[in-house]
Amino acid sequence: GPAHLFRLAGKCFSFVESTYKYEFCPFSNVTQHEQTFRWNAYSGILGIWHEWEIVNNTFVGMWMREGDSCESKSRQTKVLLVCGKSNKLAYVSEPSTCVYSLTFETPLVCHPHSLLVYPTLTGALQRKWDEAEQSLYDGLITEQGYKKILKEVFEEAGLLRVTEEKEFEKQNKRIRSLEFETVESCNKEYKQLSKELKKIKDLLTQHGIAYK
After folding, report:
1. CB 157 within 8 A of CB 125
2. Which residues form the DMAP1-binding domain (predicted)?
3. For the domain 3-106, what is the CATH superfamily, name and number?
4. Is 196 helix (H, G, I), strand (E, B) or coil?
5. Rounded to an integer, what distance in angstroms lies between the CA atom of residue 183 and that of residue 14?
6. Which end of the chain is more exposed for a tag (fewer CB within 10 A), N or C?
């Protein structure tokens, strides 16, 4: 994400509302602490730093996911970044059960270009985005196809989390497209794949599944 926001890392910002104290630690987590003398006062994690929320080439917020369990899911929090005179947690709400919304004010996002995604990308990813823009303009891809390419760009840049399924697909693609500079490196990869294949065969045999 934007390098100038990294100076917030390692710091925490609090906000007290009613009997609860909320604490936001950028690039780390969001926690909630009940400020009462009840014997079972609640304290817990509302989310751990996960990925960016990106809208129209702009970082609009930070998603904190996989917090403490809540009913059948995990608590999660979206932190909106808005311009302010000082760094402070300004507002907290719970728009839906176990999903929280925090507003964080900071002078670090006041410049109109401070939250643009494009400048944070590598040259290769910027070119990929440029090509997508051109293809959309020329009518070679649909709006949906354009958004799919952008999502891939953001995932490659590490701004969005890649699903496990996609990660597996990526690994497979890497193996299929392996090019070897030497016979030695080819043999090494062949031995590794042979070991993995044997493990899979043994596992299938163990569970009584015929291998073809």
Report:
1. yes
2. 117-212
3. Mannose-6-phosphate receptor binding domain (2.70.130.10)
4. helix
5. 59
6. C
Sign for the CA dihedral angle at 199, 205, 209, 212 comes to positive
- Strands 20-25 and 58-65 turn out to be unpaired
73, β-bridge pairs: 70
Residues 132-187: tens digit of each pLDDT = 999 999 999 999 999 999 999 999 999 998 865 555 555 555 555 556 667 777 78
pLDDT at 199 over 70: yes
DSSP 116-181: BSGGGS-HHHHHHHHHHHHHHHTTSS-HHHHHHHHHHHHHHTTSSPPPHHHHHHHHHHHHHT---S
The rounded distance, in Å, linking the Cα atoms of 115 and 96 is 27
CA angle 113, 82, 42 (to 5 degrees): 140
19 neighbors 4 (Cβ within 8 angstroms)? no
Q: Record the tokens describing residue 38, joined without a space.
A: 């009840």
Is the Cβ–Cβ distance between 176 and 170 less than 8 Å? Answer: no
